[in-house]
């Protein structure tokens, strides 16, 4: 599998891929005294979590929805300086020509965005009861031990929504659009176990954006590594248990290899590794002279009358993302619509966003449209949320496709891979001793 080219470099462990999983693995290995080289084919670390600076705007290539309850955002060494900007509590759901707030975690209480919405809710005696039931269901989920949740039968999410004891209005008006957005899966074919996990996360924390763009997370992780640990512009062509063959520098020898490349490249490097399906996503960034809504809310549209699944005035959530005096509107398109040609998608999205924000979007500037056909690995039922990361002694694989297809899953898979490497090398995690002495 490996070429016989000369040895250019040696490290205890070579990690292939410098995004969340690879950098998380490197952090854990280095803090245990293991020497690491991280190879990255791109010009900078970050992978799918890259943020581009355009005309003073910070534009994520992902439609990033993080949650303050993601444990790895707190536990991963190097992320201490990460600032999370929460969305307003709950979400706004756009239905029947108006936005109403729902999904707040305050039991039966709810907040209304307009007096008209309040009057409408009072007129409907059932609305308050629906909110109370939803609040109670979310509170139960937040308190449910993770083991009990993972022991539930695993079925396609779309078939289980009706069994959650909530009225159809709440399922269709809140649960379905929320889960579609959090899972990047408009048809909800995703495993109900994964849906429960993300819903539990929603119930335990607040949806948020990373301050300064998604790319800040890999940047913080990379900055904590010893100088020259990450080598960019180096493409791994083949991997074994003791070496990596690269296009640019020949063979790099080592004692263990961790493949942290994303599912498609991992399947190319490791014959026989299962290739999952993917959910495509397109992220649209528009600039406006003023915010169409002065509110840091996430708005779910449920893609009922247009291609956009969710949208937000990103500069109201995280002011660092737009220059002074301008606003950034970030919208996410899921499913088949994500594959539409950019001009067509932009036209349809503007018409929908004009209705959602109650203002004309014709003068907005399209700053970027990022399409990724492999954005999110699919997680159909039954889904193992702890896929093995150790393939052989000396060969390991991590990335969101080994766990859940989220930032949390990618970071956690890196931790698990590092632990497996350390076990095989006979090094105790965190002991910080030089491996040479082992
Ligand atoms: C549009 C979009 C929206 C998303 N929305 C959300 C969301 O709302 N919430 C959420 O939690 N997650 C979301 N995600 C998923 C999240 O971004 C990923 O789970 C996470 O970034 C995966 O990190 P990773 O390290 O596993 O893989 P990647 O980020 O894919 O990193 C793999 C790295 O390996 C490098 N590489 C590949 N092949 C080679 C090779 N042969 N040699 C050297 N280097 C190589 C790549 O250049 C890349 O840097 C979204 C993703 C996208 C694209």
TrEMBL record:
<dbReference type="Pfam" id="PF01593">
    <property type="entry name" value="Amino_oxidase"/>
</dbReference>
<dbReference type="InterPro" id="IPR036188">
    <property type="entry name" value="FAD/NAD-bd_sf"/>
</dbReference>
<dbReference type="GO" id="GO:0016491">
    <property type="term" value="F:oxidoreductase activity"/>
</dbReference>
<dbReference type="InterPro" id="IPR002937">
    <property type="entry name" value="Amino_oxidase"/>
</dbReference>
<protein>
    <submittedName>
        <fullName>FAD-dependent oxidoreductase</fullName>
    </submittedName>
</protein>
<feature type="domain" description="Amine oxidase">
    <location>
        <begin position="20"/>
        <end position="422"/>
    </location>
</feature>
């Amino acid at each position: 599998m490996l070429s016989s080219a000369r040895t250019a470099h040696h490290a205890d462990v070579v990690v292939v891929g410098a995004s969340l999983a690879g950098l998380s693995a490197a952090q854990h290995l280095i803090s245990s005294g293991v020497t690491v080289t991280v190879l990255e084919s791109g010009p900078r670390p970050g992978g799918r979590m890259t943020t581009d600076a355009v005309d003073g705007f910070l534009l994520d290539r992902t439609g990033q929805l993080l949650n303050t309850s993601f444990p790895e955002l707190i536990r991963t060494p190097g992320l201490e300086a990460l600032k999370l900007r929460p969305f307003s509590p709950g979400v706004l759901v756009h239905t029947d020509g108006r936005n109403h707030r729902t999904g707040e975690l305050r039991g039966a209480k709810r907040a209304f965005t307009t007096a008209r919405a309040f009057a409408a809710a009072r007129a409907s005696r059932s609305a308050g009861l629906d909110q109370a039931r939803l609040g109670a269901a979310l509170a139960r989920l937040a308190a449910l031990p993770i083991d009990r949740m993972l022991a539930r039968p695993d079925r396609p999410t779309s078939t289980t929504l009706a069994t959650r004891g909530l009225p159809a209005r709440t399922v269709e008006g809140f649960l379905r659009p929320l889960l579609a957005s959090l899972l990047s899966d408009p048809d909800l074919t995703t495993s109900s176990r994964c849906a429960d996990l993300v819903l539990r996360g929603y119930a335990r924390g607040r949806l948020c954006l990373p301050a300064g763009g998604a790319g800040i997370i890999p940047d913080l992780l990379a900055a904590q590594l010893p100088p020259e640990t990450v080598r960019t512009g180096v493409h791994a062509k083949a991997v074994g248990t003791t070496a990596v063959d690269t296009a640019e520098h020949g063979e790099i020898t080592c004692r263990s290899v961790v493949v942290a490349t994303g599912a498609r490249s991992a399947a190319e490097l490791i014959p026989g590794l299962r290739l999952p399906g993917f959910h495509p996503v397109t992220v649209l960034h528009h600039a406006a002279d003023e915010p169409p809504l002065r509110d840091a809310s996430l708005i779910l549209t449920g893609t009922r009358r247009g291609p956009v699944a969710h949208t937000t005035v990103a500069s109201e959530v995280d002011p660092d993302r737009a220059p002074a005096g301008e606003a950034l509107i970030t919208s996410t398109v899921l499913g088949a619509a994500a594959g539409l040609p950019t001009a067509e998608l932009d036209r349809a999205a503007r018409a929908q966003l004009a209705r959602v924000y109650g203002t004309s979007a014709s003068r907005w500037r399209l700053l970027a449209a990022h399409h990724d056909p492999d954005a999110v690995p699919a997680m159909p039922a039954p889904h193992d949320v702890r896929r093995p990361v150790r393939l052989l002694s000396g060969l390991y694989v991590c990335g969101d496709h080994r766990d859940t297809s989220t930032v949390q899953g990618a970071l956690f898979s890196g931790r698990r891979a590092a632990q497996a490497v350390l076990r095989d090398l006979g090094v105790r995690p965190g002991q910080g001793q030089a491996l040479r002495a082992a």
